[in-house]
Amino acid sequence: MADVHIKGAQVVTVSGVQHGGIVISDGTIDAAGPSSSVPTPSDPDTVIDADGMVVLPGAIDVHTHMHDDELFPDGIDFASQTASAVAGGVTTVIELPTQTPVTTPEAVLRKAETCSALAHVDFGLVAGNVQDPDIDVTGIMDAGTADFKTFTADPYLADDESIATLMRRVGNAGGTVRVHCETQGLLDDARSTIDGDEPDVYMDSRPLEAELDAISRAGYFAEYADCPLHVVHISSGSGAREGNRFKSRANVPVTLETCPQYLAFSKGDVADKGPFLKVNPSLKSDTERERLWDAVQDGTIDLIGTDHFPTYRETREAGWEDIWKPYAGLPGVETMVEFLASEGVHEGRISWPRLRELVCAAPARSAGIYPKKGSLQAGTDADVVLVRAEEYEVTADDHTFVGGWTPYEGQHWSARVDTVIAGGEVVAKDHEVQSTAGRGQFLARPL
Ligand SMILES: [Zn+2]
């Protein structure tokens, strides 16, 4: 007997959009696709009349910073942040370290246990931030993660030799290294030329060339060390092209990630939004933003993650006086699907199948959890998001958790996450979360 029948939907497949539905039982997909291939179940517990809404696999955000006891204030933890994820149609997150290191097998297991008790969504973990490569790589992989994060910039800067050694060890063990790409020497020099502390000078402190140089060098390091490379949060179209050189050489797998903020905003928006656009890497020119959309369209960019970093509004306000004060980082997990559906699909920049690839299938492959996640194949986890067309103005008040602010405040969007299903259960409706903390599970990455 079926548990859920979603009917009358526009189901997004690899190649197109088909009028049809989805049948779910025991938490897994029974069938999904055009009406002709999805038999109407006899007596389902729940019938959802999707009424033309678009249905996608639940989104997977491969880049979040959601839990750090030593850093985040009260109210910001894996419970409130994964609730925000599920409200926005993100049913799996891959959580990265922030300030507290996760560089031992014990630390991976400890974080997995802590987060399991709080999780509204299934999750994976990334180890990091690796500065000293003398770590137990295989032990960390046995503990459940094959991804290691390292930096070419402060505050977690690793020197060249350390990055090379880490890549060699991780490559040998079958893992992937994720690199934050901005060259610290160029950031230092740029900073030394800046006097002011108003918001727009922040952009000048993190030049485009710092990103291009670091992406290029990370590519050569990965080839040298024979290690799969994942470049996180590329902020420019030129950065995507730089990374693409190494993809086409194909010695080792290279995946390129960007984030919604780099598609939504450019330097010029800082005059209006000030510290609410403080993010690393910083925003680039309008030209770079347009080139980045091109890279998202043509497949140069493989996937989109958010680099979700939550802070409260009051903490951010301080940046109007002194932009160097607040942490860099933007909340984004709850707005990713709506942004890309509105500004990407509805504005004609990408298709629904391309969106599905960018936030569902490719992230799942990157995290080693495809097709269990990120597909609508029969027998896989019934994680599904329904999106309806609706014109509205974005406001923080309409969200489950954005710390009282969102960089997208005041934008006019046209797609809204309607209903979210995870493991066959409705877990959110109209950004109202109906799941409980602790229902999400740790997805130990298969070796
Ligand atoms: Zn990050």
Automatic annotation (TrEMBL):
GO cellular component: cytoplasm
Domain Amidohydrolase-related span(s) in chain numbering: 54-427
GO MF, one example: allantoinase activity
UniProt-listed GO biological process terms: purine nucleobase catabolic process
InterPro entries named in the record: Amidohydro-rel, DHOase/Allantoinase_Hydrolase, Metal-dep_hydrolase_composite, Metal_Hydrolase
Pfam families linked to this entry: Amidohydro_1
Official protein name in the record: Dihydroorotase
Organism listed in the record: Haloarcula japonica (strain ATCC 49778 / DSM 6131 / JCM 7785 / NBRC 101032 / NCIMB 13157 / TR-1)
Record lineage: Archaea, Methanobacteriati, Methanobacteriota, Stenosarchaea group, Halobacteria
